[in-house]
Every structure is written in C-alpha cells, then in structure tokens.
Amino acid sequence: MCLGIPGELIGPAGEHDDLAVVEVSGVRRRINVGLLAEQELKPGDWVLVHVGFALSKISESEAQAVLDYLEGLGQPYADEIDALRASDIS
C-alpha cells in the first residue's frame, strides 16, 4: 500500500527551484515540488507528499481530515513519524 501524507509548505529549500521544505506532524523535510511546477505554491499551502515528492496541492481542510485519520491509526502512524524524524534527507 502506498501512502501520501499531507505536509504544510514552509518555503523554498535553497538553490533548486524544485525543492521546498514541508512540515509533516512537526517534522521538517525537503521534498521535490517539480511535479507541481505549473501551480502557484506559497508558504502555508498543503501538499500531498509521497516518497519525497509533492503529488498534489490540497486544501487545509482535506489535509486536516487525512491527518486526523492517520493519527487515529495510533502506533503505526507514530512509528512512521518516528522513522521520518530519524531520517536525514538533507
């Protein structure tokens, strides 16, 4: 099963236009936003993130609904966030 997780866009990640920083449940990571190059993205926007790529821009209410559902999974979601926190994708 593949899982896309909502992340809030924090801002650009440096010299490459395709990279941005998102925050997922308190963890900040660089992601590639190149697939959304034709969309206007700004800090505070929400994107659906899968394996380091922003797949689509989503509304804040949709992001919150998905996060609420994922958090409701309990330990499996906590384990995923712990793994994300432990990774260093800089």
From TrEMBL:
Record SUPFAM superfamilies: HupF/HypC-like
Superkingdom of the organism of origin: Bacteria
InterPro entries referenced in this protein's UniProt entry, alphabetically: Hydrogenase_HupF/HypC
Protein family according to the UniProt entry: Belongs to the HupF/HypC family.
Record protein name field: HypC/HybG/HupF family hydrogenase formation chaperone
